[in-house]
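[audit] Reproducing an earlier prediction to check determinism. Same input, same settings, fresh worker. If the tokens differ from the archived copy the diff job will pick it up downstream; this log only records the rerun itself.
[audit] input (590 residues):
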Amino acid sequence: MNNRIKFSFSTLFLLLLLVYGSNIVRGQELERPNIIIIITDDQGYGDLGYTGNPHVKTPNIDAFAREGIRFNNFYVSPVCAPTRASLMTGRYSLRTGIRDTYNGGAIMASNEVTIAELLKQADYKTGIFGKWHLGDNYPSRPMDQGFDESLIHLSGGMGQVGDFTTYFQGNRSYFDPVLWHNGKQEAYDGYCSDIFANNAIDFIEKNHQQPFFCYLSFNAPHTPLQVPDKYYQRYKDIDPASGFEDDPRPFVEMSEKDKEDARKVYAMVSNIDDNIGSLLQKLEALNIADNTLVVIMTDNGPQQIRYVAGMRGRKGSVFRGGVRVPFYVRYPNKWKGNQNIETTTAHIDVLPTISEICNVKMPEDRKIDGVNLIPLIEKKKVKWEDRPLFFYWTRRYPVLYQNMAVQKGQYKLVGHTDYNAQIEDFKLFDIKKDPYEQQNLVKDNKKISESLKIDLDRMFNELMTSENILNQPKIHIGSEYENPVFLNRNDAGGERGIWDQEEIYGKWNVSIEEGSYNVKFRFVKPIPKGGNMYLETKGRVNQLKNEIDNTEYIEMTNVQLPKMDCDLIPFYRVGNKKILPFWVEMQKVE
């Protein structure tokens, strides 16, 4: 009897210890917040009600901004892929191998460490929904870079040449799309922004009992400007240029096309706002809102002419209209809301901040360009307010001093000039006194200008000697992790500006595993018979005569290829024409 009692008490004690102990462990886990980063595509600083736009209706984002922490001088890159690389890695995009949005320059090196990979150290569940734009093939896909769940379109945008599953849908490419779910093509019903948001919400609901990282990366309001009609109806009768007659800030005149584009963009933004509202409501319903760090931001300035709060430039420009964006943060368990931060901050700062707040180590074998923003949020003294920030944008590779800038403290040096230009050929702005970049001070402030140019030269030279620029990331063909491989036009190099042209020189930078391959070539338009299809790989050329008239496809079977790194160069020669395939499918066969 006594032994049974002793056994019962011992058993009860052990059970209580296990339960109590597991709660302690669970409590420790809950100290790490969930992370949600929401980023939109080509939504400029002025495409919100909160930033002074009288036309666009964004009640959910506006409320989030009022209640959260507002970084009022937050900067990104002038275009999307560089911004996303810096956001994911805390490094300038050139260090990661990202140098363009296409032309083969939007493939991030697999040796980069993303936020998702960082958080996997702490057993976070990770998911991406929407736009990736850092590589469509192994080993640079989201699923290769730390994401457990991946629902994306390819390349820079739906309806673009790289996203060949939606390209031929034309003005319906944003509706009922074929997307890529964990590396496989799947058909979806509905509008793209709704699809990405709904799947992100499902991911959150499925994983809310453990720490998670959700990257909701909308492809809207990027072109093509397609939106459900019920949203367009809200804006069809507005004049987007009205309401600024007495505003002293500089504004660019809008054409009728600009106005119509703005109506569509505002409709797309309102759809995004509704989806963000649904996501935030889900956090409340799951009782996890207080322990979730939410970021809302955009990736660069607007592509079209519209309200941008008087700033100069838009997407692609190193002027503020191209690189200054909204950046709002909320984490109720830790930080007081409704505060403004005026210190200059940037996309490279997000990863170090998440590393600190989640207590996970950043990689120590590379330079992290960003800094932890928590001291700013907690109003501690920081020493890096005058760090230089580097901006550039030209196609293919950076062009020295062309659309290039460095900003340090209140001053910004901008180059739109030649490689051997004198300091007088640059522009110097005092951002604090002249936030619209209208007054060039270079002639009266040569000492400041020359000092900034030293920073510009140092940063440019350092970035351009990065390992991942000197040895550009390659697409792996024949790997067990991706077979078949689709080579799309977004990742094709060759001539500058390669897009959907037929007669143009193009190639793909690849690493091929030895084996036998079936190779299928898809063309933009049907091709005539009588020509020869060529597949050139490092001096090894395979040729096939085409006997099918007006075909969109040619297939080579059992092509024997050795293991090699090379440029893969396909073309169809007929008469005097050399036609580049629209995409190439390579399947390794036994």
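[audit] rerun output stored. Observation attached for the diff report: The chain has four domains: 1-30, 32-377, 388-469, 475-589.
[audit] end
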